[in-house]
Design brief:
Length: 257
Amino acid sequence: MAENKSLGKEFSKGIIKENPVLRLVLGTCPTLAVSVSVTNSIGMGIAATLVLVCSNVVISALRKVIPSKIRIPAYIVVIASFVTIVQMLVKAFVPALNDALGVYLPLIVVNCIILGRAEAFAGKNSIPASFLDGLGMGIGFTFALIVMATIREIIGAGTFLEGIDSLTKLFGVTGFTGFHILSQPVAMLTMAPGGFLVFGLVMAAANKLAERSGKPKAELGGCSACPMAASCAILNKGESCEAPAEKAQESKEGSAV
């Protein structure tokens, strides 16, 4: 019973408590770029979730075999392999989605959510726990994308679920191409400034809800908040990431004197 409760906690934490976008502030680049359209957000979310789950399972299965010194390159090879498979499937079955996502689909390889979960969780935990961790984080990432995209697409483009037929046709559903809601949309929300604005508002709302439910406020904790902190050479030497810059400045000031 305790084990089942623990596994359930590993699954649910990525959706609410440790949402990778709204609470951990990871994967910001694809979030801002893709969340213009709900259809694109759903496609990106599914692709990232598949890569997360598969890479977590494989890395967890090989965690005792992969040497510690080369674990990061090994993780990247595993992740890149699954990203390649997913991209080939998208190109074959949903070419319109592949064109819409563009470079952000192959860039899943360097998505800090995926590499961060491999380093922080899958490399240290069992296969079932790693599977549920990847699934929960993927659903949380997809949820954040859809929430942002819903706001930006409806208000910024005046549509909702436009182009969804590229996905529904996989299940034999055709003829539905979305809704046209506003005749005079606020186009700024489909641009970069609008993306940052919506991102900030949604994150603030998520943190407020989390605080009301008794969860700690999400804060940037410097190097300690980085998913790669455990493998950072600077931190392992007991220094902060600001130390080299400070030393350079001190050296410059000393030579000037």
